[in-house]
Amino acid sequence: MDYNREYYTNGIVQLDAAKQLMRLMPRQADSVLDVGCGSGKVAHLIYEHILPNFMLAIDSSAEMINQARLLHPDSKVMFSHQKIEQFVSNQSFDLITSNSSFQWFQNYDASINALKNALNPRGVFVLQTPYKQNWCPQVSVLINEFFTRYYPELGQCFTLPCMHFDDPEQYADLFESKNFTTASLVTRNFEYRFTGDDFRKFFMSGAYKVYTHEKSYSVAIPDRFAEDLERFVSQKVINQSVFAVTISRVLACFKPHI
Ligand SMILES: C[S@@+](CC[C@H](N)C(=O)[O-])C[C@H]1O[C@@H](n2cnc3c(N)ncnc32)[C@H](O)[C@@H]1O
Fold first, then answer.
1. How far is the CA of 180 from the centre of ligand 1 (A)?
2. Which fold is adopted by the domain 3-256?
């Protein structure tokens, strides 16, 4: 499985959540920055919605940016391989978006400072990110079965590598401590009855990365682990036709103090 190459078709929930996030975006913005744009599907959705004069989309993964350029050769969105933590620009942006990427940022102080510096003082930052440590109970059940059957010791060494506050207000507190005002903050549960194939796509778009990430474990991951996990999920989807899944997300809009 190639996470970066397959993300474009696998990111089902991220796309649905982005459609909800667009409700928090201003209808007009001259300049837009999308942070953690992945292979660019959501960035284009945002572009089509706002039609800005200038849009930059950055991602810390060179492979994702390559995919974005490959899949959208005539794009009006400028794709750039950059980490938000080190982002500096002469341009200030009216709108900055982060859809399903914030949880992966490695340094929140540096990231939020960079966002603030890049934002027009009258601009807005909109965020969609998972919350709750147990972000999808059905995935937890599945993964517990996998660990118990095949990797019981490794399972004991797992910790979530990305930020998922359990209380949505903690996102407001974080941004308010960095001189932002919370203009709106809502939580949404996304409910699905996935077919086996769509469940596999959904799993590969997020959970797979979480559970195969070296930072998720206090010990080294065995060589065959990722392959075994993928085979386990593929086997499950052959044996079960419907997967009822609930995913919790927080959607928020923050404005810098003027
Ligand atoms: C789940 S994908 C989301 C992609 C897209 N925004 C979407 O909604 O489909 C998360 C992306 O964030 C990127 N990312 C993670 N940390 C980042 C950072 N510090 N700076 C910029 N991008 C980052 C990852 O490389 C990945 O492509």
1. 22
2. Rossmann fold (3.40.50)
